[in-house]
Amino acid sequence: MEKRTDKNIYTIAFAIGMVVVVGSLLAFVASSLKPKITENKRIEKQQNILYAMGIHENTESSVAFVADDKVGEEFSKYITSQFVVNGSSVSEDTEAYLIDVKKEQAKIKNGGQRRLPLFVGEKDSETFYIVPIRGKGLWDAVWAYIAMDQDMVILGAYFDHKGETAGLGANIKERFFMDDFIGEHLLDSSGNFVGVDISKSNNDPLNSDKIDNQVDAIAGATITGDGVAAMIRNDLKLYVPYFKNLKN
């Protein structure tokens, strides 16, 4: 006599039941964790923005962010304004730091208009203009927060990556690389935007020349360096009209 549980209908029903149960559990877990994930993203972005303008807990050679329990207070203390640049318009937005740069870049591919976050900070009577940028390295995404003065001279930078090679391209987030950008000019002597190249033939190991629009490349990380340079060139040039308007 055939067992009823041997029929395909019971196998299918069991599989459907398991999918429903597991799916419901995953949805519940995702919903439960969403506030924590959102909070972690807020903390990370605020730490990155502050790091770019020199607010951190670095030792002589290490990279150390403002502590999680202090970052909200420090962000409110040093970041005086947040803006969204949208085409020719600029509007204030107190949550501009939550804008997803990756999603905004995708809008361009679909014929939309990209929103550009910009943060204004004050430290030691100096004004910092900090922007997030995103590009492609050797293996996956690279991104950064760049702090500038009104002449688009870099005052600080934080770089990070998703999957660059350890000891090579991954070194973009090391102090020796990030600190080289401090003082670099993004404009040439005629005031045209050119960015900063990551050059193997820079011949300036101490990076003392800040108007050559170059920093030394990381050995063995040519493609990552090219990606970082392209990211700086492609994303920061979008802010040029804003900086020109500052002087009008």
Tell me what you see in this structure.
The chain is of the alpha+beta class. The chain has one domain. It is 37% helix and 21% strand. The chain contains six helices and eight strands; from the N terminus they run ααββαββββαββαα. The protein has helices spanning 8-52, 68-78, 101-109, 175-178, 222-236, 240-246; strands at residues 79-86, 89-92, 116-123, 126-136, 141-148, 154-161, 197-199, 214-216. A six-stranded antiparallel β-sheet has the order 2-1-3-4-5-6. It has a two-stranded parallel ribbon with strand order 7-8. Strand 4 (126-136) and strand 5 form a beta hairpin. The longest helix is centred in the first third of the chain and has 45 residues, at 8-52. It is globular and about 80 Å long. The model has no long low-confidence stretch (mean pLDDT 88).
Average pLDDT figure: 88
Could you give the order of the helices and strands? HHEEHEEEEHEEHH
Q: How many domains, as an integer? A: 1
- Strand % is 15-25%
Q: Count of helices? A: 6
- Give a quick account of the main beta sheet: strands, pairing sense, barrel closure: 6 strands, antiparallel
Rounded to the nearest angstrom, the distance between the terminal CA atoms is 91 Å
Helix and strand composition category: alpha+beta
Outline? globular
Helix residue percentage: 25-40%
| pLDDT < 50 runs, ≥5 residues | none
Number of strands: 8
Q: Output the radius of gyration.
A: 23 Å
Report strand order across the widest sheet: 2-1-3-4-5-6
